Amino acid sequence: MALVVQKFGGTSVADTEKIRNVARKVIREREAGNDVVVVVSAMGKTTDQLLAMAYELTQNPSLRELDMLASTGEQITIALLAMALHEMGHKAVSMTGPQVGILTDNIHSKAKIVQISDQRLREQLETGHIVIVAGFQGATVDGSITTLGRGGSDTTAVALAAVLKADCCDIYTDVNGVYTCDPRLVPNARKLEAITYDEMLELATLGARVLHNRAVEFAKRYNVPLQVRSSFNDEPGTMVVKETGNMEDIIVSGVAYNRTEAQIKVYGLPDHPGVAAELFKALHDARIVVDMILQNVGHDDTNDLSFTVAREDLNAALDCAKAVAERVGAREVIVSPNIAKVSVVGAGVQSHTDVAANMFKALADKQINIQSISTSEIKISCIIAEEDVDKAVQAIHDALDLSVGSV
Ligand code: ASP
Ligand code: MG
What pairs with residue 231 in β-bridges? Predict the structure, then answer.
């Protein structure tokens, strides 16, 4: 007997008919003789609606109360799914995150899981129940309800799969798997059979919206075999796994884009030790997550430095940058609010020099200016103007022949 964790996202449980469809998928797994733990998201756009109500009342809601509110979405789904399963003749029990024993830190609205006890889950499984767990939530040591950040139900599912040492964790969603690019933007994008944790982590972090990046981190750390698949058909999805032998043939797995960041450039920083440290300490103290950091080669005893942040953090980041710039005597601080980042991700990116050349040529052929470039072992990212994103991803995808496989 295997232990299977299944996770169903918001669109898969958007109404009661869809919840019945989910119940059938759960039962199929159960009738194959497996123990099943199901993690669900809030129905459809419920989380958005709940949060919108909060902002109708106040522009500055308490984060503790926001979590209290947002966590109710998932609670609706678990109860309804349990009822659907009962009606179909199966033993099922719903549990909130705190009831399961998902302990988090106290950073409301983006809490991190610190510990999960498997005891109550095991008790329910041993008495023959299908256990349905509310995704996206946990509680602090003193019992306050927390949420794990938008899209966090994936993380709940993978974390449970890790503590239970599940045989697999299937993430059911509204797409058939992980694609070489967002199919809404690139119609000839191709579904991948498999992708490595590292590549998936890059894609998720860089803006592919199929999996929560913390879920992928967990899966990688605990070696949880993940599958991303559709809840609306029975086709095999995309396996997210450790690198295997034949994956070496694959040079590029996908193209990702992100239009949620803004760039801040600090020009004319004095070129001596401690300046970057001071700037990024200030940003860290303001709890601002910084993404792409670039420093130019210095000249005339000065340096230019740029970094990107989430647009919602732009004002706070700008305040930090301006304050530090003034303290250390930098020349000026400039903001590019409407940038986008397009990235090519693949295990072979570093060793195949043609990838960068082809990517840059694809952009050049479309007259798209590259504002910054950064690379890692498995990715190349370019900052471009936001308005060029659609054109850019299609051009790069075509130039790298991703619709037919990159060999
Ligand atoms: N319901 C939450 C959200 O919409 C969590 C999730 O769907 O994973 O962000
Ligand atoms: Mg969701």
Answer: none
